[in-house]
Specification:
elongated, seven-stranded mixed sheet, alpha/beta, about 20% strand
Length: about 450
């Protein structure tokens, strides 16, 4: 939309140390973002300021230093590890005579490269257009409002107004298409709820190893790489738990500090899987020295999308990169699982992880022993339909003696419709099943 010079891959990285915690960024993470975007960093310029300069974000002297570096290295792109205002970005481009991208624009570019599905491409385009609409400010300074007078009257729109109207039209079109995709996702989500299949969603900071863990648990073969935002499009797979119950495991996009709000809004239907999940597996890179800060950033994003109340299990991944770190399961004072230390690369700790998931999801499952008369055939069939029958035997009187594991909600439904509690065996245990099975 702008009359900008052609972009390239040779880039200069700009990072300032700002005292305000809300504006502080990590330089190492910025380098990884640049490499994930496919650029070739040819120079790095660091500095510090108490507050950003209103015109160039950096000071005038530092801006001249950047201009000299662009000429010396023949750079075609300058990346800022900060959020630039539209005016600051435009002023820098006029001064440096090359393209300037801030942190938000860099993340959007990475997302555009990673999008594979139709829904992912729509979401990225929507986020890009929302970001670009703010960049139209003073972007067409060479165009003036059309002059009046005989023979000089025009349609009444400047080029800026025309472009803003076209962008808004495209945004409305994308929102309509995404609403259709969202309805399709909602139908699948409702079908899983009707089938009583719990959903477990992988969340965490980008490059924490979520996709590798997903592949280890499901053998799905989704793309996993040691780079930021390797996963963009969500993937769902069915996994059997040790107790014999299925669950749906969802691999989602990773989070990052100062995740652009336009991205959060555009990926609302994707993040809906996280907000409606029965359990969140919060995957943490155990080898990252900033892991505690990353955990806080993930919690901020979860709060923003309304998923902060979902049950969580911390999964400390990549213990293979730590010396003498065995897999283990940690519990709280009430004995509930809270942390699991695993390695998705070697498979260490997967049994503890699945056992912890099973324990959390099936906390409301209880065992019952029922004695059903022959006329209770419909209830007998419903118990098998629910998948809760663990053992069965027939008594000498022709009754079914069944041991079942049922969720509290299923038991309540059966008690209201079939009065299943009247068949409950109070004083007999599972051993009676073995006795009944041995009877002639």
């Amino acid at each position: 939309m702008f009359d900008r010079p052609g972009g390239g891959e040779r880039a200069i990285l700009i990072h300032l140390d700002l005292p305000a915690e809300a504006d502080r960024e990590q330089f190492q993470e910025f380098q990884e973002l640049a490499l994930s975007a496919g650029v070739e960093p040819v120079a790095t310029i660091n500095g510090s300021r108490t507050t950003p300069h209103p015109r160039f974000f950096v000071g005038t002297g530092k801006a001249q230093e950047i201009r000299d570096a662009v000429k010396a290295h023949r750079a075609e792109l300058v990346l800022f590890n900060h959020a630039l205002s539209p005016v600051q970005e435009r002023n820098l481009e006029e001064l440096l005579k090359c393209r300037v991208l801030d942190r938000t624009g860099l993340i959007l570019d990475i997302f555009a490269q990673r999008a594979r599905t139709h829904e992912g491409k729509l979401q990225v385009e929507l986020a890009q257009l929302k970001h670009l609409s703010t960049r139209l400010v003073r972007g067409w300074t060479h165009l003036e409002r059309q002059k009046g007078g005989i023979g000089l009257r025009g349609p009444g729109e400047t080029q800026l107004e025309t472009d803003r109207r076209l962008i808004n039209d495209r945004i409305r079109q994308l929102n309509r298409q995404l609403a259709k995709v969202r309805r399709q996702r909602d139908q699948g989500r409702r079908a899983r709820k009707r089938a009583e299949i719990p959903t477990v969603s992988l969340v965490g900071y980008t490059n924490a190893g979520k996709s590798t863990l997903f592949n280890c648990l499901t053998d799905a073969g989704v793309h996993a790489a040691d780079q930021l935002f390797a996963t963009l499009d969500p993937t769902l797979r069915r996994v059997m738990l040790p107790a014999g119950y299925p669950m749906i495991l969802a691999d989602t996009v990773g989070f990052i500090r100062h995740l652009p709000h336009d991205l959060v809004a555009a990926f609302r239907s994707t993040l809906q899987e996280t907000r409606d999940a029965d359990l969140l597996l919060h995957v943490v890179d155990a080898s990252d020295e900033h892991r505690l800060a990353n955990i806080d950033q993930v919690h901020l994003v979860l709060t923003e999308i309304g998923a902060e109340q979902r049950p969580q299990l911390l999964v400390y991944n990549k213990i293979d990169l730590l010396p003498d770190m065995p897999p283990r399961l940690e519990r709280d004072e009430q004995g509930r699982p809270v942390r699991v230390w695993v390695s998705a690369v070697t498979g260490a700790g997967m049994d503890q992880l699945l056992g912890a998931i099973d324990e959390i999801l099936n906390a409301d499952i209880h065992s019952y022993t029922l004695r059903l008369p022959p006329q209770a055939g419909r209830l007998h069939a419903r118990l098998y339909q629910l998948g809760g029958v663990q053992d069965e035997a027939t008594t000498a009187e022709g009754h079914w003696l069944i041991q079942v594991d049922l969720r509290d909600s299923d038991w309540q439904i059966l008690d209201n419709t079939e009065r299943v509690s009247q068949y409950l065996v109070e004083n007999e245990t599972a051993s009676c099943l073995a006795v009944a099975s041995e009877a002639p």
